[in-house]
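Worked example 4.2. Below are the chains of a multi-component assembly; read each line carefully before continuing.
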Amino acid sequence: MSDLQSPASAAGKATDEAPTESTAGANAPSATAKAGRSFLPQSTLPRHLLVLALSAVFAVVLLEVSSPYQNSQIATLSYYAIAAGGLTVLTGMNGQISLGHGALMAAGAYTTALFLDADEPLPLPLILLASVVVATAVGALVGVAAARLHGPYLAGATLALAVGLPGLAIYFHDIFGGEQGMRVRAPQAPDAFESFIETVSGNAASSTKWLAYVGVICLLITYFFLANLVRSRIGRTWRAVRDQEVAAELAGINLGAWRVLAFVVSAAAAGLAGGVLAIVVRLAAPSGFTLVLSLALLTAIVIGGLGSLLGALLGSALLVFLPPFVTNLGADFGLNGTEAAQLAPFVYGVVLIVAMIFAPAGFVGTIRLRRMTAKAKRASAAQAKAAGSNGG
Amino acid sequence: MDYFVNVTLTGLTQGMIYSAFALALVLIWRSTRIVNFAQGSMAAATTFIALALIQAGQSYWVALIVALLSGFLLGAVVERVIIRPVEGGPELNAVIVTLGLFVAIQALIAIVFGSSFQSFPTPFGVRGFEVGGSTIPLTPTSLYVIGSVLITMALLVALFRFTRIGLAMRASAFSQEVARLLGVKVGGMLTLGWGLAAVVGSLSGLLIAGGGFVYPAYMDSLIVFGFVAAIIGGLDSPVGAIVGGLILGLALSYVNGYVERGSALVSVAALVILIVVLLVRPGGLFSSTTARRA
Amino acid sequence: MTAIAAATVASTLAACGGGDDGGGSSSAEGGENEASDTGVTADSIKLGAHYPLTGVAAPGYSEIPTGVKAYFDCLNQEGGVYGRDIEFIFKDDAYNPSQTSQVTNELVLEEEIFAMMSGLGTPTHSAVVDFLNDEGVPDLFVSSGSLMWGDDPETYPMSFGWQTDYESEGKIIGEYIANEFPDAKVGLFLQDDDFGEDGESGIRQYIDDQIVAAERYTPGNTNVGPQIAALKAAGADFVVGFNVPSYTALSQLTALQLGYDPQWFYSNVGSDPNLVGGLLNRFSEGKVTDAALLDGALTTGYLPTVDMTDNPWITEFSRIWDECGGEGELTNYRVYGMSQAYTMTQALQAAGQNPTREGLVEAVEAVGSEWEGPVFAPFRYSEDSHMGTSGMTIERVVGNGSEEVQPVRITDIGDAEIEEFGGEAATPPANAIPDEEAYEG
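Applying the procedure described above to all three chains together yields the following C-alpha cells:
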C-alpha cells in the first residue's frame, strides 16, 4: 500500500489508517491456514502444549547453568515479559496505545505486598491470583473509559493514569507505606523445590533461584494463555476491530466491548507481572512504577514486533540485558559512572526512532514480512513461469 | 481570604505555564496531527543551553534569546529529519517516534550537562509583593511569567490572522492538497509550524525553571499536565489549550492548598479531571469535529 | 558456611599468636592472608555502597563516596589493612528505593562484596535491609539516622547505624528549645518517611505542647509552597526541619516568596551552609546570595566541620583530600565519608587477619563502643544495640561556618535521659590511620 504513494506527498499529517505494517508481527496465520510441512501438530492446543513443555525444559536448563546474578536477571526478565506480552496483545492486535501499564503493574504489586504482609500469608498462587483480579478490575474501569478514546487521547489518558495512580499510594500512606513503599517479605521456597534442584543439578536452592523459578513459571503460564487467545476467534475479532472498524461494526461486532476485553486481558497480565515484581524486588514503592516503566514496556514490544509474543520476550530481554552492556561500553569509552548509566536510555530512544522509521514491524514482524514477501515472490514467479510456458 | 488569594494566584501562574505548553502541543497537532511527546525534553534541552550560557557569565536575556532561537532550530530540524518519514503513516508510528525522541533527548541532556540539580536564575525578584500588610505569593517573577505568555499568545494570534505566512500555515493544516494547488510549500509550512511550537515550548520550559531547580527530568510533570490541559481543551483548539491550562492550574492549586496532604493527590486530581472531561466530551471541551470513519 | 567460619576463626587464633603490628603496616608476622570469605582475597577486601549520585538528594550526598574513596586510597598507599587493599565500589540509586534494590542485588550477587558500608538514605536503605540480612552480608554504618539499623539486633543482626539517630537528635533539639525558647510556637517541616517520623517522635518527647503544625513533603515533589504557607498560617515562629539539603534550599526560597521569616532549625543532614548557599545563590541575580538566607539558623553537629581549621582531624582530612582526593574542595560531606571510612578501618582491623562476615559483626558489637575517632561522642554498639554515636552539639550557622551554642550532650532512644558528655575530643593517630587490635572472640 505504501509504495503507491509518491515521496512528495508523504509530508503531512499522520492518518487514522490502521497500522498494518507496524503490526505485521501480529499477523501470524492461524493454525488451519498453515498447510503441511510443520512437524508440530496441526491444531492449536496440542501444539501450544508441546511448545510449553519444551520451553519449560529449556528454562530449567538455563536457570541451572547460570550464576545467581543471572538468575536474578532472569527473574527481572520474566516480569517485564509478562507485562509486555499483555501490552503487545493490546497494542499490536487491537491497536490501542497504552502508556499506563506501569500503573496496572503497581496495582498488582501493592496487592501482593498487602497480602504477604499478613502474619499468616495465603499460599503464593492465591496471592498472585488476587493481584491479577485487582489489576483486572482496575483495567476494566480504565478500559471502559478508554474504549471511546482514540490515538493521542487514549495515550494522554493512560499517561495521566501512569502518573496519577502511584499518587494514591502516597496519599494513603498508612496502608501503602507512602513514598517509602511497602517492603515485601519474599516467600520461602517449599521443601519440594530444594529436593527438585538437588536432583536436577545439585546447585544451592537459594531464595534468588526460587524467585527466578516463580517468575519463569508465571511467564510460561501467561504466554500459554495469551498464545491460545491470539490464535482463537477472539484474536481474529480483535484484529478485525483494529483494521476495519466500519466493516467489523457492520458485521455485528460491538467495538467497545471487544476493546474493553483487550484492555482487561492486558491488565490481567500486567497485574501478574506486578505481583512477580513485588516479590523479586522485595519492594512495592511509587518510585518503581514511574512513567519510565510504561515507556520501557512500549519500547520492548515495538522493537520486538507489535502483536508477537516472541517479540515481547525478545524486547524484554533487550530491556534487561542491554543496559549493563551499554553501560560497560560507555565506561570503556571514558564516561563516568552516572553518565554511562544514561547511555542506555539514550540508545533506547535512538533505537525506537530508527526502528519506527526503517523497520516499523519490529524484529519479529520484519522477519515475518520478509518471509511472506519471499513466499509471494516465489508463488508469482512460479505462476509467471507456468503462464509463460503455457503461452509458448 | 488571604490564603484563598494565595492559592488562587499560585494556580493562575502555574496555569499560564500549562497553557503555554498546551498551546505548543496544539500547534503541532493542528499542522501534522501528531502529538509531540518530545516537546518537554526539547524545551529542557534549550533550558540547559541557556543555563550553560548563564554559568559562562552571560546575562539572563541573552541566554533567553539563544534558548528560543535554538528551540526554533531544534523544532525545525526534528520535523524535517525525524518526523517527516512517519508523517504520512499511521498515528501509532508517530507516537512511538516522538516517545523515542523524548527518551533520547532526556538521556542526552543527562550525558552532556550532568544529572545533578542546579538552580536556575530569574531576572526579577522572588520576594512576594506586600499588599495590605501581608505578603502575597505574587512575585515580580510571576508577573513576568504571566506577561510573557500573554505576549507570546498575542504574537501568535497576530501571526496567524494578519500575515500571509500565517494564512499559508493555516491552509496547509486545513487542507494540504488545496494548499499545494495554490502554490503553498506545504513541507516548509510544516517545518515552520514545528519550529514555532518549539519556541513556545522552550519559553514555557524557561519560565518554569526560573527561581527553581533544573535537572534533566524537570519538565516531566509539565509534560503530563500540559498534555492533560491540551486534551481538556481539545487538541484542535488553541483557545481550548489556554482555557484548559488555566482550569487545570487552578484546580490543582486548590487541591494542593485545601485538601489535607493534597500534594500527593495532585496527579490523581489531574487524572480525575481528564477522565470526567473525556467522558462528557471525548474530543475535549472545545472540540467541534466529530470522528471521521474510514 | 559455619564450618568455614569456624575453621577460619581457628586459623586466625593460631595466627594471632604471632602478634600484630596493627593494620597500617605491612603484612602481619605469623600467619598468612587467606581468602577467608566472599569478597576477601589474600590482598584485597571488596566493600560496596549505594548513594544518590543523581536526583533530588544528590546535592551534598553525592560527595560522601568521594571522601570514603579518598580515605581508602591513602590507606591503601600505607599498606591497607593487614596488607590488603580496600576496594570500594559504589553505585547510584538516585534516592529511589526500587533502584537501591537493583544495585544492591548487583553488589551482592554480581560484585560479591564482603560487606556493605555507608548505604545512604532512610527510604532507600530500608528497601534492602531485609535482603542484606537474609544473605548474611554485613551492613555497616548506614548513612542514615533511622532507628531501623540499630534498635533491633535480633531482627537485623548484620546492620549497624553510625551517625546520631534522628530520635536522639530530636530529643536534644526538643530539650534545647524547651530550655532556651520556652514560649516559641514551633512548626515542623518533615520528610514524609521514617526520617521525619523518628525526628518528630524525639522532639515531641520534650515540646509536644509547643508544636502548632507539622507539615510533610515528599522527596521528588519540589513544590513546598503549601507546606510553608500552612506553617505560616499556623503562626509558627520557630521551624524545625528534618529534610535533605535540596529541601532546605527550597524551604528558604519559598519562605522568602511568602515573606515568612521564622527562626529555622535544620537537622544535621540538611544544614551544610556551603551547599545550601551554593544552591540558593543563583536564584535571583544579586538578590539572594550565598548562605545569607541561612545565617542565624540553628543546627546540630556530631563531627568537626571544615570551618574548624584548627581541629586536628580537619587538618588530617585536608591532607588526605589533597593527596588522594579528586576534584573540588574538602566539604563537610567528604569529612563525613572519611570519618565513616575511619570507623570501617577500625572494624576491619578488629575483625582480624582473616576476616569473616560473622567475625566482622562480632568485633563491632564487642569493641565498637571503645573506639575513638572524629565523632564527638562514643558509639553505642553492643549485643543489644547497634546504634551509632550518641551525642550532638547545637550550632548556629554563621556565614559559611558555625559557632557552637551548646556543647556535646549524649542520650539514647526511648526514655533515656539527656546528659552532659564528660569526655574529651580524641586526637587523630599518625596519618589518621587507626591501630586497633584484632578482636579474638
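Take a moment to check your reading of the output against the notes. The domain at 39-164+309-389 of chain C is CATH 3.40.50.2300 (Rossmann fold). Residues 1-29, 286-291 of chain C have pLDDT under 50 and may be disordered.
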